[in-house]
Amino acid sequence: MKDTDHxxxxxxxxxxxxxxxxxxxxxxxxxxxxxxxxxxxTPDEVRAWVINRWMxxxxxxxxxxxxMSRVEDPDLRRAWRKRxxxxxxxxxxxxxxxxxxxxxxxxxxxxxxxxxxxxxxxxTRFAVxxxxxxxxxxxxxxxxxxxxxxxxxxxxHAERIEGLLAHYDxxxxxxLAYFRKRLTEAPEDVxxxxxxxxxxxxxxxKQDAAAAALIFKTDVLWAQLDALxxxxxxxxxxxxxxxxxxxxx
Length: 249
What we know:
- It is a single chain.
- By secondary structure, the protein is mainly α.
- It has a single domain (9-233), classed as Up-down Bundle (Heme Oxygenase, Chain A).
- Helix content is 69%, strand content 0%.
- It is built from eleven helices and no strands.
- Pathway: Cofactor biosynthesis; pyrroloquinoline quinone biosynthesis.
- Its EC number is 1.3.3.11.
């Protein structure tokens, strides 16, 4: 008998299944993060990470806007729009995107260069665009489930703050403000998202699809670090990607 022929898992068992995906597949296990948090990255490796991670950061509010454009339930829209506000901020101040550009400035990059998206590796662009398309096109429940990597984010943000402060001269409360803020924002987001998935994934088929969506998202995050490692740790920078010395402040 196929696994999908069984009835749905209990709420507790399904949550444990989702959390196990993070324990096995979240990108805190990637060797690039061990290198970064341990103080072993060169300045240019850090800059390459900041530049390429911008692609992901900049697309978060865009994927959330795409999600909301399909949501008919105003309660769900009200809850979800906070995510856009967290990243975009107000008209003149605040927001995760501006905090990320403060990090870019701190590592010696021109924030306008980073915000332009110039120099992003092809693999990064393809991975992030795939995530935006997933959220735009897949069932809403799958799209919410894909966001549940936030379950595992506070741990990596805490490790990152500790590691960067210990090992890098650029690290201070201003440059690391993005990660500090996510320590409070991410748990608020995931509390809603997790409850939504656990409540609405009420068949085994939906639970399997939600778990697959979360696996897909961990693959998106992992692929970005694979590309960074190949390009900037191993020295195989692809054509068109950022070259050390470009876009400096």
